[in-house]
Amino acid sequence: MKVAIHQPNNLPYLGFFHKMLHSDIFVIHDDAQFNDGDFQHRNRIRTFDGWTWLTVPVNQSEIPINEILIKNHINIGKRSWNKAHFETIAGWYKKSPYFSSYEDELRRIYDGKYDKLIDFNMVLINFLIKAFDIDIKIDYSTNYELNSKRTQRIVDTVRAVGGNVYFSGPMGKDYMDMSLFTDVSVEFQQFEHPVYKQCYDGFEANMSAIDALFNLGELPFKE
Fold first, then answer.
1. For labeling, which of 15, 113, 172, 209 is most exposed (least CB within 10 Å)?
2. pLDDT exceeds 90 at position 173
3. What is the SS3 assignment for 55?
4. Is the per-residue pLDDT at 33 higher than 70?
């Protein structure tokens, strides 16, 4: 059984869902340490002249992602941050072919109240899983009492969920201790970002996967 492990990023990019398609179990590493410079509380969407960040305001601290709190009192201009995010998405994607199909559901998500970043991120991730019609078992690293670190933590997680193959991101070979994979084998993701027609001229890779959803109505690749 092939297992992938990934942090619960905000509005993940297409490679996140490509990894899902090639896995039997997808483990959300929800107790990984929060990294302000990563994609756990932000991601990028396409604009007329390139792209822009959407960043969820959070109480930044060196604690696990599942303990990070959202600063719901923060406004962007005169709007709450979540209303501003939705209106920014709607403004840039309102003319894309499939935005209207998902507008109401996305509005309900952004109208919701979330105290923790993990809860907001998982609602968005599950929205995209459903929209892309991905059949995947989701598990969480906090469901298992694992005290190991780094590569050993990966191996122990795969074992804990009953897997025998770890499906790693392409950069895994640069930091993992491969000698620890004794009874667990490793496969590396081979993801080439697809090029498709966006709603503005040119192509910007590595946008949030909502870009592909609103422009194509489906994933631009198959398993």
1. 113
2. no
3. strand
4. yes
For residue 23, is it left (φ>0), alpha (ψ between -120 and 50) or beta?
Answer: beta
**Residue 13 and residue 23: Cα distance in Å, rounded?**
17
Of 26, 2, 4, whose CA–CA distance to 135 is shortest? 26
Tokens representing 178? Answer: 């491969």
Q: Is the pTM of this model over 0.90?
A: yes
Residue 54 phi/psi, 5-degree rounding, is -115, 115
In this structure, what token pair is assigned to residue 126?
């599950």
Q: What is residue 223's predicted lDDT score, i.e. its pLDDT?
A: 66
Average pLDDT over residues 61-79: 95
Indicate the domain borders of the chain: 2-216
Q: Which residue has the tokens 């993701």?
A: 189
Give the whole-angstrom CA distance, residue 176 versus residue 59: 30
pLDDT tens, residue by residue, 174-184: 899 999 999 99
